[in-house]
Design goal:
This protein is an all-beta fold and about 450 residues long. About 0% of the residues lie in helices and about 40% in strands.
Length: about 450
Amino acid sequence: MPDYPQATSAWAVPGSFETTALSGIATGLTNGAPAYFYVVANGWGEVSPWSNIASATPTGNLPNPPLSLTATGGNLSIGLSWKQGLNDATYNVYRSTTNGGPYNTLVAQGLTTTGTIDTNVMVGTNYYYVVTAYNGPYGPSAYSNQACATPYVAVYPINIQPNPPFGFLPTPMTVAPWMADVEPVDTSEASDGPSGAISVNLAYGVAKFDSGPDLIIPNTLGPDISFGRMYRTATAAGNLSSPGLPPGWTHTWDYWMVPLTPGAWGAIQLVYPNGASEQIIPNVDGSGNLSLNSSGAPTFITLAGAPYVATGVPSATKGIWTQLALQHNGLAQEIFTVPSGDTVFRLQTKVLSNGSQINLHYTNPQNQGPAILTSLDNAPVGGSATSELNLAYSGGLLSTAVGTSTIAGTAVSNTRTYTYASGELAQVSYLNSTSPAEWAYSYTTVGGANYLQSASSTDPI
């Protein structure tokens, strides 16, 4: 007798049938498993030799391969979708990093939908996918077509509404400098260079670039006077900056206040150079008039723990202040007034603990809009002021910063030069040199706004 496969042959299973017809249907078979058949004839007590052997595979409810598999790279993920094949009920998804397989990695199994998202991926790696189908106990089907995609990291702008009406971020995503110790920040282990200038607020994901002072001016009357810049992504997203700098950039002396309820003695927002802000609120009586202390001065509610006491000089018009100030220990205080043509109170005088003063001067060429800082001078108690810092602008943007000090009776000046490309700060020079630049910056456009993409520094020559 010929040695035919027995494990799946029809004659290995009891249940052969007799028929007088020239055709028949075999039942009790296993879908997907080949079956082998032969026919013999019976008559007059005799049995004929075997016919030829024929084979077939019952399909029954065996699922067909899923159709039209597609893969789409996403942010740290790959999205997969396909169409249902005949008799498909559930699906398994496999992948490989090799074109054509083998597909040894099981991504998902038992899916009842025609799509899934693979998040267990590495950015920049090509992944090749196939899908198989099941129909209850029947399956798997053959593979679907192969689909390939590569995941990436998406960069999204911070969800901040640009151009806020009062000029500050309602949610600044940072804290005031006097609370900096409680801010969760990730910084580089590098102590200097571009990496050392970068930090990230872990609570909000806001990046800050602060390379330190551009100028440090010796001050015989108190602490040295410095001038520098910092960049924050949140500030850039709000399309905000210090007057005279591009979006995202603020300078060291950009402290200001803005009343929030014109025509009433309402809250006043204090804004810091890093974009943080807090409210100082004048105490009022039931008629909305200022509550005065025993000295006839208005009193304020300030943030708990604030290192100052707020004071102010009201005008005769309700809601209009002549001057605002923050009083610290001893004689130290910051005094704020409104420069000509401006609408906010800008830092006018910083009184040091010994009574000496740093005076800030502003200009407003059109006599409207934000005033720009042009110079700082330093004056002892009862003495004449000495110029310490002078800022020049070109096309409305800061072009040079010059610090002047007197050392052993000789005036010494140091200059930084700022250059721009397409309205963005592109380079900052070394002291007293224009080439090479100490700092160079490039930007990328995301969601219609420009964000700082890279900062590089060169070694001095």
